[in-house]
Write a structure and sequence with these properties.
This protein is an alpha+beta fold and about 230 residues long. It contains 8 helices and 9 strands. Strand 1 and strand 2 form a beta hairpin. Helix 3 packs across helix 4. The protein is globular and about 50 Å long.
Amino acid sequence: MRPSKHLLPLLITAILTAAYPVMAENFDWVNNGLPSAAANTRAGQIAQKFGITAKEADDIMADEAEIPSSVFQKRGPAMPPKPVRLGGDGTLTLIRANTLEKITVRYRSEDGKYNKAALAQINNILRCRLTNQEIPVPISLVEVLDDIEDHFAAQGVNILSGYRSPRLNGSVGGAKKSLHMLGWAADITIAGIKTRPLADYAKSLKKGGVGFYPKNGFVHVDVGNIRYWNG
C-alpha cells in the first residue's frame, strides 16, 4: 500500500529524523548559523553536511568544469610537471581557511635542494577537508604559490581548497576530472589583494590553469595545461 501524498512528507521527516544520528556521526552536520532559506540551497546543504560555511561550500562548487581531457591519460593521470624554480625565495606561508591552521616552511634551500619534511607539512595543510586524507602535492604547485606570495609581499597565501578526495569532489559537484583530485590545484586568496590582480599575475607565470572567480572572491591555480577562464 502506497502512502498518501499527505502522509509522505511526514514519513520522509520520520526517516530523516531516525537517520540523523548516523549521518551526523559520519559527516559532522552543523547548521553554521545559516538561515533556513540558505540551508535549503545546494551550498547550504553542503555546508550543513560537511560542517563548513555556505560561502566555503559555494567556493568549492564553483570551479573547474573545463579540465582538459589531455591531462588524464587512458592509463591514469599524467605526471605532474617537473619543478621549475620561479621567483619565490623558497619559504612559504600557507593558511588553511576552514581551520585557520598556519605554517611557514623553508621548502627549498639556497642551493636548490627540496626539504622533504617541509613538503610533508605542505601536503598536510592542503589535505582534503572531508576525509583529512593527504597526497603528495607537486613541487611545481608549491613553487607557483611561493612566487605569488613573494610577488605581492604577502604574509601568507590563504588556501580555500587544496586536495579533494573523490568522495568530497563528488559530493560538492566538482568536475569529474578535477585537478583538485590529483593535488595539482589550489583555490587561493591573499589578504588585501583583489582577485583581478591576483589572477592576472598567476596568468603571467604561464605554469598552468588560472580560474578567475570575482563573485566568489578567489582564484584557482593549477599546474595542468595552460588555460584561463572566468567563473
